[in-house]
Amino acid sequence: MTHQNEYRKPLPVPSAVSQQFWAGLREREVRLPRCRQCEKFVFYPRTICPFCMGVEFDWVKVSGNGKVYSFTVVRRAMIPAFQEATPYVLALVELEEGPRLTTNIVNCDVGNVRVDMPVQATYDDVTAEITLLKFEPA
To answer: How far, in Å, CA of 5 to CA of 27, rounded?
Structure first.
């Protein structure tokens, strides 16, 4: 857990559309919008379904389980705030439910991360208001 006054990296700014996603993370749940019309999960949260153009969504708790779809090991930070974290894994994780999320793989040596590696959600309370979704080996 990171203390609020220590966190120096950029933070997400929840919007009216994404607020339920961020609220779920604070409660240790991965919640995604699912279109009421076509019943597909949509990520990133938005106001129009990219599959059927539906505009009504339900927020559904998903498993938080998935697999590494793609990844890279970041060895040189693009901005100073990330320098002390290098090397770190920037990954695209495909959830069991289908959507892919950009995230970090943690609690694993960067040399051990592999495509198709099973992963599970873990939560990083970086401030009193913001919890980040990360993944670790399942």
So the answer is: 21
Answer whether 66's CB lies under 8 Å from 98's CB.
no
Which part of the chain is CATH 2.40.50? 63-138
Per-residue pLDDT of the chain (138 residues; tens, 9 = 90+): 544 457 889 999 999 999 999 999 999 999 999 999 999 999 999 999 999 999 999 999 999 999 999 999 999 999 999 999 999 999 999 999 999 999 999 999 999 999 999 999 999 999 999 999 999 999
Q: Which fold has domain 63-138?
A: OB fold (Dihydrolipoamide Acetyltransferase, E2P) (2.40.50)
**Ranges of H-type helices in the chain:** 19-26
Rg (CA), the chain: 16
DSSP letter string, 70-106: EEEEE-S-SSGGGGGG-SEEEEEEEETTS-EEEEEE-
